Amino acid sequence: MQVPIMPAKGEKFIIPIGPQHPALKEPGHFEFSVDGEVVTGASLRLGYVHRGIEKGTEGRNWVQTLYLLERICGICSHVHATAYCLGVERLAGVEAPPRAQAIRSLVAELERIHSHMLWLGVAAHEAGFDMLFMHSWRDREIVMNLLEGLTGNRVNYSANVLGGVKCDIDARQTDAILAGLEHLEDRTRHYLNVVTSDVMFLRRTRGIGVMTKDVAEKLGVVGPTARASGVARDVRLNAPYAAYDRYPVELITATAGDLEARFIVRVQELFETYRVIRAILADLPEGGLTVRMPRRIKEGETISRVEAPRGELFYFIKSNGSDTAERVKVRTPTLPNMASVLTLAVGHQLADMPMILAGIDPCFSCNDRMIVVRDPAGRGAHWTWDDLREYGIEYYR
Amino acid sequence: MTIEAATPLLTTWATDTAQPEPGRLDAVVPRENLLAAVQALVDARWGYLAAITGLDQGVEAGMFEVLYHFCSEAAVVTLRVPVPRDDARVPSVYAIIPSVSFYERELMEMFGIEVEGTPNSDRLFLPDDWPAGVYPLRKDFEMKDAGADHAS
After folding, report:
1. What angle do helix axes A171-197 and A98-126 make, rounded to 10 degrees?
2. Chain A residues with CB inside 8 Å of B123's CB?
3. pTM of the complete model
4. Does the distance separating the beta carbons of A303 and B78 come in below 8 Å?
5. Which superfamily, per CATH, for B3-144?
């Protein structure tokens, strides 16, 4: 097995795709060498939304870092915060109360619903199926509203704090979630039917981008991308964290390894997510939401792994005994999965590239972790931390 | 696969091993043994390379550490490769694990650790006009080193 790292030498045509919106509304730059319509080599350049977040953690205390890390990704913000909190709590020798752990899992599963539905819409759009895109994004608003009702925010919910969670759940919210799930489950059945029966859609997915189990294992792909190739890999099962040992998740896999299988796995995971959310709501442990956390964290290193909607999210956290992390390393699921895009690209039609890319549900912000802000106040293209802070204070005054 | 299965694979190549947490094995592997150790894990199909972490222990310590994290279900094996700051290089594991290119490119641009033999050493995350020889995740990095376009 070869993973291409460059456009093939000697080809006359190299087709650049990106950096503007190669598939999703996020930046990445691919170069594909082609022989006619067939791709023969590929390379990738990332970093268009690189913000230096890992470095940023070195100048912040443990609490500030939590809010910074949550902003790595606007889609799966909660899972970043969860990975970080669990890791820091382990270093401190503190364990969040069971009710807090259950709420962490609950928010994580709600997040998975919104992420998968967002992906379904985007992937459908790539296939030219805009009706499905609009429907899935309309239905996604249900879960966005539930998340807002629960945490106060549609994105970057900040449900986690070090040592627990900040939001509790009452009977009214429980009822709202259960009612929302009922509607979503009904809609999800419809989506499963569409992605497995619509003839035009299947021509874009069935047998396209096939990754065998062997290749998936060798590439070290993670998440639904791996599971659609029959690899039994899900951190929630392999190494349960938060409350997943109390509310076990069933593994959803497929064997075909093509784009259709990736659609099926993600849509079927939604059903499993609904089931887990109901299980959590039916049996939510009583008790407090937080425990006290020390301001300084004991010296040590830990590895914290969680299952983000896109697959395994890997955190390495090192403390030097102070109130600031020595090192926080983040490996997001899109990075290993990107290797599969380059590998699968070779031999496929150029026109299949956006679908193959969308098939892994790439998240570039996660990958890139510099933001250049268009400036309304004439402060130059770059805003300093102080500028941003001042702007924020003025804005909310 | 388990930590117990990984331990015998690494005994020849590691100079020291430790179990910092349940389900984790840290093995200190000298640079010259890295490829052999990785090959041993891959031949035994022990998990997959989940991430490469660079660590800067500071100018005074004069050392980097490159951590190769392999995961298999709940178990994590970390190969810890000490690298002197004044001779910052590690061999590429690309020939053994072809999907490693992105991790190695990130390690190179962020820490200035040369990954010898890696087929693509282009920047992955940093901007094209980022100054040469400036590595942001080193502890002695200062924002002004990045130049006026990036430091503000």
Report:
1. 30
2. 45, 47
3. 0.89
4. yes
5. NADH:ubiquinone oxidoreductase Nqo5 subunit (3.30.460.80)
